[in-house]
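**Entry details**
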Amino acid sequence: MKAVKQDIIRVVISLLLIITGILLEHFATEIQNWILIVVYGLAFLIGGYKKAKDGILETIENKALNVEILMILAAIGALILGDYKEGAILIFIFAVAGILEEYATLKSEKTLTELLTLAPDKATIVTDNGEKEVLVKDLKLDDVVMVRVGEGVPVDGVIVKGETSLDESMITGEFRPVDKMVGDEVFAGTINQVGMILVKVTKDASETVVNKIVQFVKDAQESKTKQEGFLERFEKWYVYVVIGLAVILMLVPLLNNFGLNVWDWKTAFQRGIVVLVVGSPCALVASITPAVLASLSNAAKQGILIKGGPTLERIKDVNTVVFDKTGTMTEGKPYVETFTTYGVDEDYFLQNLVSIEKHSAHPLAISITNHFSDIETIELETKEVPGIGVEGIINGERWLVGRFEIEMCKKCRADINEYRNKGYTLVSVAKDDFMVGLVILKDKVRDNAKLVIEHLHENNLEVVMLTGDNYQAAQNLATELGIKHFRAGCLPMGKVTQVENLKAEGRNVLMIGDGINDAPALATADVGVAMGSATDVSLETADMVFMHNDLENVIQVRKLSKRLRNIIIQNVVFSILVIALLLVFNIFGWVMITVGVIAHEGSTILVILNSLRLLLSRK
């Protein structure tokens, strides 16, 4: 930003000098010519310093001429012709266009600069010898840091002491404070809002989610679309074509030696200089990159991180959207719908159930303990059986919660079959190996999932749902959301096969998943989208991340991709049309340098301003 401010200052000084020269020309009747040369010359040098420096350095580095050199040659030509004012105005407008392009880039990088300042540089480390402030980059795994109220969490880690609420909006898009306690994971850059906590470092500072987001955005800005790559190659050769055409026009008076009565040398030189001005591809070169960067910035502002222009470009061609079920179509957080008991008192059942489940970190156990948080628990020892459940001894009775092999009555079996057919998740509870209760849970469907599916169908996009759940659960959700095509019982590689089959049919596939077990399928799809709830893995595998877990982003990003295409087409057609008309008019002598400067550089500014419209979000 500092460099842009300096550029603006130089351009303002250049403008003031141009205005001074114009006033001297009109109101100073006996002004000496050398004074005007000095005034306009200073305007030329001050206004064109930055672009000339960049152009010369780039020419030396790439060993090829560029647009900046073309403009310098045109301005020098104008000075040779005695059109000092026109030369100064040319450089001034060229510099203004450059500042606008820098502005577009800086606006696009706004999200990145916000992320760079998000995580603190220093941390308070806690050791046996007390507290000490250190640089975050010097922290090691298993170090323990103190985070006071109001401070930012310096690293990714887990809480080892204390309870609090964290503002995680910059990481997950969740605007409500998230309660955290011992054992919970925390991210660098989140803000501690309630109480002091001690956090054990679990990741190197360079591997934190914030740093991965920063790298994601950097990669996005550095990647080039096919059109951008083509224009870069086109610019190198086109500059030589323009210079060649200008030289040819300047040599036209040689035809007078063959009896043809054409231009004199001054006219020919003037027409050649006009070619250098109007033939420059400034507007054409600025037709794509500012538009792409503005689009990426717009998306990031809405919580959509896109891995570069090529990804955004591909989205407009998508005709099939594949959704994972759990964690994508649903929130991935099952809640307790109801429970039923068989031959035991309900209060006694709930007390024992919650007392056992509070010792487990399994998502279903957490859902149960949260739902029955008002139940008074008892102290007991439990043993967790991985992948099966938890067992505990209460008053000499062996209680089992989970998926153990147990005996059950006919009604128990009937209830289990009924609930499974309806797509519920079940947790069985047994006392001394005989079922005494059943907890019925359901994963909540995302609020706007049905509206998103309807919108995609209305726009003739095929929707497919893939899930590892049983057929009945998948069918129930598909019916609820109006999805015609789905596949149940899909393991990770099974999802890859389904995506490959769709692509083999000639479909352009966008897949949305939770970024963990869906990673292979996301990589196989034409565009892989990960929900932000799996941020760490999402940033490694996906082409795009929905940080706010909002399915409606599918609609927004598709519209943005189409807007980008339309604006690029507008820019390119307008740029080529202006250059073509000015070149033709110049042949007939209808374009003076002043008109050529204003028309050509004005078109560049208009193209950049048109691209900046993509910074505006449309719902």
Summary: The longest strand covers residues 330-341. The longest helix spans residues 553-587. The chain is about 50% helix and 20% strand. The mean pLDDT is 85.
